[in-house]
Amino acid sequence: MITPEAVRELYQAFGQQKPMGSSAPSTTQPHYFLLRTFHGENDLLVILNTKRCRYRCFFCQLPAKSSPYFIPGEDILAQFGYVLNEAKHALSILDRVTLSNEGSVLDDVTLPRETLLQIARCIHELRRVRRLVLETRLEFVDPSFIQQIKDAAPRVTVNLLTGFETYTPAIRDEILGKREPLPQFEQGLDRVAASGADLSAYVLYKPVPEMTDAEAFAEADRTIGYLREQCARRGIRLSIRLNPMYVAKGSRWAKRASALPNYHPPRLTDIMRLAEKHAVEGLRVYIGMSTEGLDEPNGSYAAREDYTSALIKPVKLFNDCKIVRFDWSALGLPDQPDWQRPAIAPVAAWPELALTAS
């Protein structure tokens, strides 16, 4: 007999809170998959198990769980087939599919092009799917190959998802280790425009451990402003994934944060305020709340004094495009945070800080 306790266990094991920090058990299974709602659409997220990302950004531990060796295309196709079989009763309600590999799915050193094209052909048979999201660094964007993907799945709009993180060069280079100078990123934007794809960009909120809450807000605000201006200039449809920085176990960034006597993660309410600011101007913003199962204790927004479980529902409503403004009074919060009431000086010129990657 089914019981509420059994249902609770099923929900915890297979729902939104299912663990995602572990490696795949074999080369024919993905690292992770989840049927979820995203911006109000039914999305099938698949994190494929491929050769690890060729980059090791200072804040990211995701490549550590991926294989250092090439995984054949046949095995990767078996992973996608495994996911479709697991989700078979929901295939007719899917609106979109998101493909990731903890790196760049357009990097053919990790994921062969013919394999990705075969996956696109399979997605074409999911007749309701209208959006295919591909996570990648922009250096791997080839407009002619994007056209091949569109030809393989002609009903879908291709959305390229990339980790931009911040527009501040010193933070990108010395704190995050992105190894992607702004001119290179902008050349990638040119290729995105030429491919006719949409763009979703990750923005890291509070990417420097030493940042104050006011500085974190201003820096992320300017990063989003930069992306909006650059994409508008090229006619690229943009959406933002605003991710609160968390302390990833074992990362170089985590070592820097742990060396501070009073490190404070971002405040979720500040992230909500920034997302709201841009959403009311017509930009689609998604607030990331996952730590991907890699955070250290007290290393995420949940450790800050402003966090309560009462924030989860309004964030989910916002992420599903059901609201664009938060009811701050209902949450028992002022319209502005305490740090915003006095005049805020401009963000410090980051090269003046000791921004050495330790």
- Report the principal-axis shape: globular
What is the structural class? alpha/beta
Weakly predicted, low-confidence segments: 343-358
Mean pLDDT: 90
If strands are numbered along the chain, what order do they take across the biggest sheet?
1-2-3-4-5-6-7-8
Radius of gyration: 20 Å
What is the H/E order? HEEHEHEHEHHEHEHHEH
Task: Tally the beta strands.
Answer: 8
Number of helices: 10
Rounded to the nearest angstrom, the distance between the terminal CA atoms is: 56 Å
Biggest sheet, in brief?
8 strands, mixed
Question: How would you sum up this structure, described in words?
Answer:
This protein folds into two domains: 25-155; 184-358, no CATH class. Helices cover 33% and strands 15% of the residues. The protein has ten helices and eight strands. Mean pLDDT is 90; it is low at 343-358. β3, α3 (113-124) and β4 form a beta-alpha-beta unit. With 358 residues, the chain is α/β, with parallel strands linked by helices. The radius of gyration is 20 Å and the shape is globular. It has an eight-stranded mixed β-sheet. The longest helix is centred in the middle third of the chain and has 22 residues, at 213-234. It has helices at 4-14, 73-86, 113-124, 143-152, 169-175, 182-195, 213-234, 252-258, 268-279, 312-319; strands at residues 32-38, 41-47, 96-100, 131-135, 157-165, 198-205, 238-244, 284-287.
